[in-house]
Design brief:
Length: about 120
Amino acid sequence: QVQLVESGGGLVQPGGSLRLSCAASGSIFSINAMGWYRQAPGKQRELVARIALGGMTRYADSVKGRFTISRDGAWDTVYLQMNSLKPEDTADYYCNAEIGPTPYDYWGQGTQVTVSS
């Protein structure tokens, strides 16, 4: 079993910053990639940021230059630093881990981010 637990969400004013964390635990033998997705009410879930084993990163165009994804050396935790937050960033943010060798996707329960004045 693999468990992903997100933290760091909350209410922030436009222009503010938040740092999300995702801690992975359980039977983890190989992590191919980890990422953050978000879903606003009534909208499709979308990729926010992703980091692969080799360090390659991918960002949604809407967050590029504002958000930064990173992970620790052991791949136990992945972070999402969110700067210059906008109201349109308001969503539930979900941590995702692709774990090999199968591979199989695991998801956290989500953490809510609300950007409002």
